[in-house]
Amino acid sequence: MFILNKSFSRISINLPQIVKYSVNVTDPSNIFVFKSNFTSEEQRKILHILNGSNPDQLSRFNVSQNRIKNLVSWKNKKGPFRSLNDVLEVEGLGEKVLEKICEKIITEDKVDETKIKANNINKRLKQLVIPPISGNVTDELQSAVGIHLGPVGSSWAKLSRTENKLNSWNYEEFSSLPKKMLPTDTFDLVRIDIFTSNILKVEMAIRIIQKLPVADFYIFEATPIMSPQGTTQSASVVSYTQQLELTSMLIALINTSVQHNAFLRKIDSNGTSVKTIQNRVLHLRSKIPARLFRTLVGTEKVAAVTTVTELVENNGTCMDFMLPCTPITLEQQLRNAFVSQTPANKELLGQALMLVVSFMDLCIYKNPVSLAAISPNKNKT
């Protein structure tokens, strides 16, 4: 008796290796058990497709017309498939055929998920940058300049795609640019002051353009809409208005500059007249750099000097945290120049650097870490 049991045990152990199907002892009505490496989640997806697809949709998965008819006939008689074991009851569907169908369904599902993710990324990119950029831009862009305009001055930073290198980094203070005076005693005095102020802003814009490095695109941060509370403070209104005016001047100068607009250089070299001007200026949505670099508390920006110093000196890594962006490379000369600045000028320089790094990581590299960092759902499970 002992020998008989031992022999039977040995046969039972080897049985799955020599037969395609085994008996389903838990469900006597179904004599087949489909042995596969698909996870429970994958099996649910497969059953959902098989139960919910019409004949045309099923043909996508390399299922012959005869097998499709048999699948439909089985479902009409017995209802939806509850497990892959049920599918084996369909005439003409052996284990190998079913496995191929399952693999095809899972592969198609993964492709669809990839397309959905890509579409979601593209939708988010359209919301991040204005005007929306095309695939040609993301493929061909080799450098960008981030331009920051603040109350005390303007700064810019050029980042090249090769090695994510910071090539140029500088600023221009606004100490020589007076604020517009409020209306005083006579209309003529106001008119003269506004005229003088506009002339000075034009001169300031020209000085910035003369120092601005050449790149494929120039990135501004979109100016936030002034809240009703801010309109009650005349100083805020003046600063806000001057920033909009100076931004408009810089955009016009950049797009019409033969030096800064490569399209104009190409047209000019052919000796033909310029009929259209291709825009080289993009706007990143307001406060995106602050969100990416965690310098936004509530709705207010806080000082970014510490974060920028970490990015410049340690390539964005330290013992306590890692910045959610691609590490930058830069010459020691630029690093030393930044370290020697006053805190106010460091802040000015830092805003331009954070702007161009945000644009490259989010819109050009499509860095998943960066995209996750600005997602409102990043803390949800």
Automatic annotation (TrEMBL):
**UniProt record, GO biological process:** transcription elongation by mitochondrial RNA polymerase
Q: Which Gene3D superfamilies match?
A: AF1531-like domain
What cellular-component terms does GO give this entry? mitochondrial nucleoid
Name the record gives this protein: Transcription elongation factor, mitochondrial
Name the InterPro entries for this protein.
RuvA_2-like, TEFM
According to the UniProt entry, its GO molecular function terms are: DNA polymerase processivity factor activity
